[in-house]
Amino acid sequence: MRKYARDIEVINDGGIYATTINLGNHILTGDEPEKAGGKDHGPASHQFLLTSLGNCIAITVRMYANRKQWDLKKITVHLNMENVREGTDEKNVIYKKVFLEGDLTDEQRERLLFISGKCPIHKLLTGKIEIHS
């Protein structure tokens, strides 16, 4: 069974790289920055990927803290990435920093940071992925 009732639809209608992304109740715009030949009308694809990860981390940590009734006031997630080449090997590295505000013990903070690595998107990105066309 597929996760969503409707497919996500991404359309490029001839405008250099800009896309319209239809998610049913939400319409987004994607693009590439000007230095990559786009018009910077929206986030680039890699920014959407990092946004998805950050969103999932924040929600997962919030759900856990709420379930435990911990005094977590605010979660801020900073993400970035780079392509790293080591000899003939190449990999993409995602950098994640999670900031937690609230009246939390050191043990609670440590647990929430651990939980941040358990969100479904983190698991998806670090697991096996197949794309069927």
Description:
This protein is an alpha+beta fold and 133 residues long. The protein is 32% helix and 32% strand. The strands form two sheets. A three-stranded antiparallel beta sheet has the order 1-2-3, with no helix packed on it. It has a two-stranded antiparallel ribbon with strand order 4-5. β2 and β3 (27-30) form a beta hairpin. The chain is globular, with a radius of gyration of 18 Å.
Task: List the strand order in the largest sheet.
Answer: 1-2-3
Largest sheet: 3 strands, antiparallel
Order of helices and strands: EEEHEEHH
| Count of separate DSSP helical elements | 3
Based on secondary structure, the structural category is alpha+beta
Helix content: 25-40%
User: Which percent band covers the strand fraction?
Assistant: 25-35%
Mean pLDDT: 95
Strand segment tally: 5
Radius of gyration: 18 Å
Beginning-to-end CA distance, first to last residue:
17 Å
User: Can you tell me the residue ranges where pLDDT is under 50 for at least 5 consecutive residues?
Assistant: none
Coarse morphology:
globular
